[in-house]
Amino acid sequence: MASMQGVSRQVLESFIAEFNSCQRDNDLHVFLSLVNTHDQFIISGELKSVVKFVKLVRSKSAPLDEDQSQIPFSQRKPKVRVSYTSITAPYHCRLLDGCIDRQCDHAVSRGWVLGAADMQIPVRAGDDGHDIRGEQDLTRYLFQSMCSLPVNWPVATDHAGTTHIVDFGPGGLSGFGSLTFRNVEGQGVSVICAGAAVSRTGSPLGTKADLFKTQLSDVTSAPNWFARHGPRLVRTVHDDQIHINSPMHHILGKPPVMVAGMTPTTSNESFVAAINSAGYYAELGGGGIHTEVDLNNKISNLTSQIEPGQTITLNCMYFDPRQWQFQFPAILRMRREGVPITGLCIGGGVPSLENARDIVSSLQSAGFMHIAFKPADASAIRVVLAIAKENSMFPVLLQWTGGRAGGHHSFEDFHQPILETYGAIRS
Asked: pLDDT-derived band of residue 116, with 50, 70 and 90 as boundaries?
């Protein structure tokens, strides 16, 4: 058996199909035997087949330290971390089907027979999560589960109404509790590792001590992202209308729909004013504004076209030092002069933590209300999170576009960097 980490199931299954199609004997096939998380799997097969399959995977994988940021996501090779397990038998695949009859016969001869009536609580199957008390031959099913049935851990642990999961295994904070937490993170389900006597700083996992606490409120809890961050419908008293209430609404004071700055479209101040007047948030695109005179004129024109009380946000290109050097000081000056420009979006690069500290400080002193960043990849998202953490008293927005529209902002897939960093974003 071999462990495969850092690869999607779809890609891994394509490797398996390619490998198996070249084998002359079905017994030489390899199998996806365990799904531990969305990107951690175990492969089973005869030893020589597994060794050959590992060679195939490595030939199709990029080195773990290779930089592929300048390669479009769809053309990148996966970075698969491959290792052999200490288990020598091909468990959880059909290669062990022949063992089950002998095992069942031996168990029956010894009286080791378990019936559904012997179980007082639901016991979930490892392959699809069904309650195994419904199995007609429970003893045989248990042998099948141990030998030939695959394991799908995310499915097996996904049950509505679950509040706590306890891992009684020997792995401590590094065992199946850790894997399980990755699968239920953000759902408000606490994971307690009974084999861990001491907690680890920063770890979201509970320990053995939680099992002895008498008050449920004292037990390690886990956040529910939807409950904490999800949108809600509210009825406002002043107009008796229903509105969408969300963190984005709290910052911008508008519905959670935005028209982000994009040259040349939003460099047209009349277009931005029309969106603003319709009640939505739109940024003035600074990429198409090349002189301070032009910036002054566009801001002045935009101000004259919006209603009193409406505000302006400028989208600036940080990677263009010439534009940044006149646009940023200009909007600080305008704000101090009373122009209703209260937001800045930084696109085309994310400043360092030190530079961001100075930028945020200048915005706060001038009277700005928020700042937004448009990171290009997962590493830049983490920089934005560090900026937000350091400036927790100033609203920070994270905008993500990905590169599927042609790679304008990056070569990244839209979903993967967000999936990779979502837990950190919500924390």
From this structure: confident
Fill in the amino acid letter for 388.
A
CA distance 35 to 42: 7
In the structure, how many helices (H) and strands (E) does the chain have?
Answer: 14, 15
C-alpha closest to that of 301 among 312, 309, 290? 312
Q: pLDDT tens digit string along 199-241?
A: 888 889 999 999 999 999 999 999 999 999 889 999 989 889 8
At 176, the amino acid letter reads F
Per-residue pLDDT at 132: 93
- Angle formed by the axes of helices 353-366 and 378-390, to 10°? 50
Q: Which of 181, 233, 183 is nearest to 202 (CA)?
A: 181
Mean pLDDT, rounded, for 104-126: 91
For residue 262, give the nearest of 285, 279, 282 by alpha carbon: 285
Contact 231, 255 (CB under 8 A): no
Contact 280, 256 (CB under 8 A): no
CA 175 – CA 119 distance, rounded (Å): 26
Q: Is 154 exposed, middle or buried (0-12, 13-18, 19+ CB in 10 A)?
A: middle
* Average pLDDT of every residue of the chain: 92
What backbone torsions phi and psi does residue 186 show, to the nearest 5 degrees? 90, 0
- pLDDT greater than 60 at residue 407: no
pLDDT on residue 74: 82
Q: How far is 123 from 116, CA to CA, in rounded Å?
A: 10
Strand 242-245 vs strand 232-235: parallel, antiparallel, or unpaired?
antiparallel
Cα-Cα-Cα-Cα torsion 184, 187, 192, 193, nearest 10 degrees, comes to 20
Q: What is the rounded CA–CA span in Å between residue 249 and residue 255?
A: 6
Structure tokens at 405: 């529209």
On whether the CB atoms of residues 348 and 375 are closer than 8 A, the answer is no
Contact 398, 375 (CB under 8 A): yes
* C-alpha span between 72 and 416 (Å, rounded): 13
> What is the predicted pLDDT for the residue at 409?
63
pLDDT digits (tens, 9 = 90+) for 262-285: 888 899 999 999 999 999 999 999
Phi and psi based region of residue 76 (left: phi greater than 0; alpha: psi -120 to 50; beta: remaining):
beta
DSSP H or E run through 181: helix 176-184
CA angle 353, 409, 377 (to 5 degrees): 50
- What pLDDT is attached to residue 416? 87
Structure tokens at 72: 């479009």
